[in-house]
């Protein structure tokens, strides 16, 4: 893993540490996931297609093989909502000792804008990504390193909430992360796509109150075989940006197939325009 991490500053790795200790991480993950499960599975209806594929990847992948799940992004509650509803609750409480709950990324200016939020999201296994800093920023290599050592990393390759509810273009940084994980771990992580519908009804854009009585559907896809592309990762003479783009395009195609089989997501563009006319901040 030395080639991947040789110029990553120690501060980037420190973002993986929980400022509240093991007990703090256990309580944070347990309570947040419990609220998410209550909201999605009891106050709303939660349906999963091909759930056994998710559990196979979560519980039975080879030791030392990472898991990268990719999902569409339509609501601020997509994470922790979807991973919490899919994962057995005990895992969250036991994570400081078992390390089986997902890592995820969030924009630093959103999730880490003050000291309390920094500590809270760090306790919840969230890594701060800097918007506009590109694919070479150290925290992305830290996330790739986590996947390389066998952890689960949950990503939104679109990079932002899609207000029209439709699958957006994928940023090719996700392809670089796969290549970096391969470089550090010596093998590809498992890439598992999942497409969800209905989250924008549970927590609409810029809303603060959760809605009840809706149906959330998650469709789990088959693990992606990217070996015909990843064989060119970090290979001398190969244009690496093209390799990353090819990985992102393959991921997008798999997600588009899932989208075509799933209920459509609600467009929130009218809501966005209404709030804009009221003078509300539209950044997301």
From TrEMBL:
InterPro entries listed in its UniProt record: Plipid/glycerol_acylTrfase, Tafazzin
GO CC annotations, alphabetized: mitochondrial inner membrane; mitochondrial outer membrane
Localization per record: Mitochondrion inner membrane; Mitochondrion outer membrane
Single annotated GO MF: O-acyltransferase activity
Magnesium is among the record's keywords: no
Catalytic activity field: 1'-[1,2-diacyl-sn-glycero-3-phospho],3'-[1-acyl-sn-glycero-3-phospho]-glycerol + a 1,2-diacyl-sn-glycero-3-phosphocholine = a cardiolipin + a 1-acyl-sn-glycero-3-phosphocholine
GO biological-process terms attached to the record: phospholipid metabolic process
UniProt key word Mitochondrion: yes
Protein name: Tafazzin family protein
Organism (species): Dunaliella tertiolecta
Lineage: Eukaryota, Viridiplantae, Chlorophyta, core chlorophytes, Chlorophyceae
